[in-house]
Design goal:
191 residues, mainly beta, three-stranded antiparallel sheet, 16 strands, 0% helix
């Protein structure tokens, strides 16, 4: 009788990291923003095809994104994944404008009337937005000869041209109940 011993060895292939992949990356930014990882998913890819989500990755060039920058890099244990991004110019307020002046002719003593006055913020991209929370400077008790009031919003000011006419006396009106008959030499009664 012959006995044969068969030795079976299990060959275990070592599973190694072969790369990383990213999903759900935000790709559009305004200059000055930081790369947003809120929805970002980073997975390690293993040699057997499996993946595992990780959070201990590093971000390269992800702070204070600038015009012309088109990638952000994610790294993990020497592996990299580039994310293509678009950085748009930041839109900023560059001033204010008076789109419609409203009433421009006043009589001395009146207050400036904002009815019909349309004031817009002007943005760096040329767009405008109507505002109503502006301040009027020198708009109370307008004086004859005054030619303008100032509209102020934040650090921005603009002049609105106006005309203020003086008061003219057209006559005196005697109101009911006033004494109108006097004897020569008698003082005028102001009561």
């Amino acid at each position: 009788e012959v006995t044969i011993d068969i030795i079976v060895e299990e060959i275990v292939e070592e599973v190694t990291v072969v790369g990383i992949e990213v999903e759900n990356a935000k790709t559009t930014y305004v200059e000055g923003e930081d790369f947003d990882t809120t929805e970002l998913v980073v997975n390690v890819v293993y040699s057997d095809g499996t993946t595992e989500e990780i959070t201990d990755y590093e971000i390269i060039d992800g702070e204070n994104l600038q015009l012309g920058q088109n990638t952000v890099t994610i790294t993990y244990e020497g592996y990299e994944a580039n994310i293509d991004i678009t950085v748009e110019e930041a839109v900023t307020v560059v001033g204010i404008e008076v789109a419609e002046a409203g009433r421009t002719i006043y009589t001395e003593g009146e207050n400036f009337d904002t009815t019909g006055l349309v004031v817009n913020l002007v943005y760096s991209d040329g767009t405008t937005e109507e505002i109503t929370d502006y301040e009027i400077i020198d708009g109370e008790n307008l004086q004859e000869g005054q030619e303008s009031v100032t509209v102020k919003y934040g650090n921005y000011e603009i002049i609105v041209s106006i005309t203020v006419e003086g008061l003219e006396l057209y006559g005196i009106e005697i109101v009911q109940g006033a004494r109108i008959n006097y004897i020569e030499g008698e003082n005028f009664d102001t009561t």
